[in-house]
Amino acid sequence: MGGYGFYVWSSYIIFFVTISYVFIVNLMKLNEKKKKLINLEKHSDQSS
Amino acid sequence: MYLKLKKSYFDVLDRFTPFLIIMTIVSFIIGSYFALYGSPPDYIQGDSMRIMYVHVPSAWWALMSYSVLAVSCTIWFITRNPFFNLIAKSIAPIGAVFTLIALVTGSIWGKPTWGVWWVWDARLTSMLLLFFLYLAYIFLWQAISNKDLASKISAALAMIGFINVPIIKFSVDWWNTLHQPASISKLSSPSIDESMLIPLFIMAFASLCFLITMFSVRLRIEFIESRISRLRQKIYD
User: Strand pairing partners for B46?
Assistant: First the structure.
């Protein structure tokens, strides 16, 4: 990388680590919300 | 009423997500190969120019996301259709992430190019302001418990903040800045060689795929949250 390896690689690492983190956290959040909704729907059906 | 109508759309999004994820990963692999190995170094900046392939797409989509946010808020303001609130709330965190990446990678690129990590020039400062606008929009929703009031204040902020988008775009033309002017102002005659333009477009496409994937995931989260709050109200009333 002609002496610029640190700058180039750190940019790509920051980029991919950040988007991977955002992707995983949001996917986990979506699954958690789905479970919560299913539980609430069951609770709602029982109470009605 | 509007949110009930949209349930079928969210089921379609659910089915499309795996396809979007695969497309994102494949295009990132191809794009990274061309960005790091398949393209030549710049004759002045050398290999440090390769940072452009992650920096520029992030900045593009950060600006596009804010435009979507501002347009959604405007439509919500006119129609009061809550679906546009969901769109705005879903795109804001993704836009904030792209803005942060553009700022950090730009700072890393600035060090070998300008000799400094940061300068208070028009492009960098207006981009930092964009990041604060995203944060303000997100925190307003969390800080105000009255959702109707939160919608109004955050929408007003998003619409007023849109003034910053053309300022970012034209800051390099209006003021003397360290930041270089746009290399691709016209697609027919870009001031960048094809060997660098192709990897840039592949990385931009990959980042766009990521944005769409994340937007579909965030949209479903917001939709489910709205259903949860309605169900809770129904149970406790």
Answer: B42
Q: Which residues from chain A sit within 8 angstroms of residue B93, using beta carbons? A: 22
Q: Where are the domains of chain B?
A: 14-40+47-180+196-236
Q: Tens-of-pLDDT digits for all 237 residues of chain B?
A: 445 555 666 777 778 889 999 999 999 999 999 999 988 888 888 889 999 999 999 999 999 999 999 999 999 999 999 899 999 999 999 999 999 999 999 999 999 999 999 999 889 999 999 999 999 999 999 999 888 899 999 999 999 999 999 999 888 888 777 777 776 666 666 678 888 999 999 999 999 999 999 999 999 999 998 888 888 887 776
Choosing among B228, B229, B233, B236, which should be mutated to test the A contact, i.e. which has the most A CBs within 10 A?
B228
This model of the complex carries an ipTM of 0.90
Cα(B52)–Cα(B206) distance, integer angstroms: 14
Phi-psi sector, A2: left (phi>0), alpha (psi -120 to 50), beta:
left
User: What predicted TM-score, i.e. pTM, was given to this entire model?
Assistant: 0.91
Domain extents for chain A? Answer: 18-48
Q: Which residues in chain A are contacts of B225 at CB distance < 8 A?
A: 33
Burial status of residue A5 (CB atoms within 10 A of its CB: 0-12, 13-18, 19 or more): exposed
B94, B217, B231 ranked by CB distance to A27: nearest: B217
